[in-house]
Every structure is written in structure tokens, then in C-alpha cells.
Amino acid sequence: MLTQKEILNEVFTLPIAKQREIAVKIQNNINEKFQNKINDLNGIEANRELTVEERIAITKSLSGCLKPEGQYTPMTKEEDRELIEEYLLEKYS
Fold first, then answer.
1. Tens-place pLDDT, residues 13-69
2. What is the dihedral of CA 22, 24, 30, 34, to 10 degrees?
3. Helix or strand or coil: residue 9?
4. Which of 2, 14, 72, 90 has its Cβ near the most Cβ atoms within 10 Å?
5. CB contact set of 12 (below 8 Å; sequence gap of 6+)
6. How many Å apart are CA 40 and CA 49, to the nearest integer?
């Protein structure tokens, strides 16, 4: 049995047209398996609504995913007003 590296080396020695054909076959295989997985999940999940516990778990897993890098300090009300004022002055000048 060939290792992945050996298989890749064999593929790389083939003409470009043959490499492209193999790549298309691999991509089609991946797409088909991915679509089958989605169909399986849709069949299971479409029949029921998420429980409160599941919704809370999803929310907690997403917590912090949009947190900016480094230290973040929100704008003060005064800074917010200045920004809006500058925008309106620029817009209507």
C-alpha cells in the first residue's frame, strides 16, 4: 500500500491534464460526501426544534468569538457624539 506522500509523488509525475482529471474526481467525491452529510443532518434536525439547553450551549460556545484582539475600550458617550457630529457636518457641508 502506498503512503499519501508516494501517491502525491506519483500524481505529480503525470501530465497536467491527467492531474486535473484526478483533482476534479477528488473534488466531486468530497462534494458528494459533504452533501450527503448535510442531507443526513437536515433530515435529523429538521424534525425538531432546539431545546433551551441546546440554545444556551450554542450561545456559550459562541461567547467571545467576536472579541477584538488586544485591549478594547468602548467609546464614551462624548466620543460617540463627536463622531456623529463630524459625520453629519461632513455629510451636509
1. 999 999 999 999 999 888 888 877 776 666 555 566 778 998 898 888 887 777 667
2. -170
3. helix
4. 14
5. 19
6. 16
Q: Are 19 and 12 in contact (CB under 8 A)?
A: yes
Give the pTM: 0.40
- On whether the CB atoms of residues 75 and 83 are closer than 8 A, the answer is yes
Distance, CA of 81 to CA of 87 (rounded, Å): 10
- Cα distances from 92 to residues 28, 30, 59, 79, 82, in angstroms, run 54, 54, 41, 20, 15
Helix, strand, or coil here: 25?
helix
| Crossing angle of helices 4-13 and 16-45, rounded to 10° | 130
